[in-house]
Amino acid sequence: MLSHLDIPTDWQSVRIKDVAHIAFSSVDKHIHASSRTVKVCNYLHAYRYEQIDHRTKLDSGSVEPAEFDRFSLRRGDVVVTKDSEDRFDIGVPTVIADEFDDLVCGYHLAILRPRPDQIYPQVLAGALQLPAVRNELASRANGVTRFGLTLRDLGDTLIPLPPRYVQDRIVEVASQWAQEERRLLQIASAKQKRMRGLLEQLCTGRRRLADHESCGWSIVKLGALFHSRKENGHDGLAVRSVTLRNGLVDRITLERKTESSLSPREHLLARKGDIVYNMMRMWQGASGVAESDAIVSPAYVVLQPTCLVDSLFAAFWFKSNRMVHLFWAYSHGLTDDRLRLYAKDFSMIPVMVPENVDEQRAIAEVLKTAQQEIGWLKQLRELIRKQKRGLMQKLLTGQIRVPIAQPESADRSPA
Asked: Would you say the CATH fold of 163-211+357-415 matches that of 2-161?
């Protein structure tokens, strides 16, 4: 329990309800025409982001006037998860960093509104991530398949409360680290935009690489470039899934765990270099290249490249706007959520492709290098984030003390 932590003698252990007003939201995801349209901070926003600002992509929803009055969010609010399938996912915080006119808190979340004379939002959010606090929240949660906190349990949870002048310095340090995170994010976003432009130009022939400008492009059907592979899987291979953003990934790495009762032989075999696509989401670009032999869902289509196409080039090429449009045009279904691109229809799609496979490989190498740069920046940003979190844990338990000039008065309120 937190009361057993070795915190400095001039610090306090306080209940959350003593330093913040708490409210549990009941706003659902439904949109009603007669209600006020709003932006909604939902569960995944709180779970994934350390802060919510004007750059955050938020969901739309609607609320009644009374709900807006009770659950609208202000700059400085801390939103936390209050229930989950995993008890250790309870109490995950995000800070509302900007002022919104129309943002409300969604269902499964709690609003913690810090008392301005007691605690900073960043200090409250940081305290909620301390291992001792998370363990206490988990121990208070009740449930069988889904665990949750009552208003009383959340309010009675203890957190460390440093003196105000110590909070000032902790927030200052946290802001410096957050600024570095934002800088890396801006660089990564700029490189992502540049890579997207390169992909659209190089994969359509609008921009040519210097050593291949004399090479021709020809129109062929995709059936000439790929053959459908329908081999059964076997034991000893990883199960992979197709994602929109990351291509083909190990199923166990997905945030949403999907269980399957199928045996390995009931899966499809994807060999190294094959392209795998989700026939129900190919119209959105859901495909990826197999970096090693694996097994995949029988609902997928596995494509074996011929000698006329480089598989890594194809993986990038299939993400271009032109190709995604063609996949949509050749898919069948009454509505978008029912569209399917079957292998036989895929094979009939006419495309323009570099005749020289060496040009395809050169294009793929350029895009792979750009992709690696973005990956390195994301890894660096994640490292900075982990280091900041570790530092905050030590600062918020007094294990590390930031040099502080003793204040003339400690009765100032946080801004």
From this structure: no
Tell me: the pLDDT tens digits for 170-216? 999 988 998 998 899 899 999 999 999 999 999 999 999 998 988 99
d(CA 77, CA 97): 8
How many whole angstroms separate alpha carbon 73 and alpha carbon 53? 12
Report residue 132: phi and psi, to 5°: -65, -40
Given CATH 3.10.150.10, say whether it is the number of domain 217-355.
no
Calpha distance 379→305 (Å, rounded): 32
Report whether 4 contacts 147 (CB < 8 A). Answer: no
Q: How far apart are CA 34 and CA 62, in angstroms?
A: 9
pLDDT of residue 415: 46
Question: 128 is written with which tokens?
Answer: 């909620």
pLDDT in tens, 298-349: 999 999 999 999 999 999 999 999 999 999 999 999 888 889 999 999 999 9
The three-class DSSP label of residue 296 is: strand
Helix, strand counts (H, E) of the chain:
12, 23
Q: Which of 222, 203, 200 is nearest to 350 (CA)?
A: 222
Q: What are the two backbone dihedrals, phi and then psi, of residue 188, each rounded to the nearest 5 degrees? A: -65, -40
Of the pLDDT bands very low, low, confident and very high (cuts 50, 70, 90), residue 2 is: very low
- Residue 147 host element (H or E): strand 147-148
Ranges of each domain in the chain: 2-161, 163-211+357-415, 217-355
pLDDT at position 29: 73
2-161 in CATH: which number? 3.90.220.20
In whole angstroms, give the CA distance from residue 184 to residue 182.
5
Fold classification of 163-211+357-415 is Helix Hairpins (1.10.287)
Q: How far apart are CA 128 and CA 118, in angstroms?
A: 16
